Amino acid sequence: MYAIIATGGKQYKVSEGDVLKVEKLDAQPGDTVTFDQVVAISDNELKVAGDVANANVTASVVAQGKGRKVIVYKYKRKTGYHKKNGHRQAYTQVKIEKINA
Q: How far apart are alpha carbons 70 and 90 in whole angstroms?
């Protein structure tokens, strides 16, 4: 059984027991979060839209962290302009506990 959930502007295909990194959530490690935006659920057949209106996915927060550094380098030739900047995206690592259909 799997579900497709939407969080942080992205969609993820999840099953029970999966550990994944999602956009930063306001929760501490050990907390339980519920994803209410379920796009589709499949056990033997795929259910979408109206069939999953009251479905949700329960997950526990494993860790909060930052991803690898991405270097942003801007450069314009012949003008002496260059600018170097780095960015580390914050994420929340969650473990999928239960899919409530």
A: 12
- Give the pairing type, strands 70-76 and 56-66: unpaired
Helix-strand-coil split of the chain, %, nearest 5: 5, 65, 30
Instruction: Find out whether 37 and 14 touch, Cβ atoms under 8 Å.
Output: no
| Cβ contact 99:3 at 8 Å | yes
What does DSSP say about strands 56-66 and 90-100: parallel, antiparallel, or unpaired?
antiparallel
Q: What is the pLDDT of residues 45-75, one digit of tens each?
A: 888 877 778 899 999 999 999 999 999 999 9
Please answer whether residues 52 and 40 qualify as being in contact, where contact means their C-beta atoms are separated by less than 8 angstroms.
yes
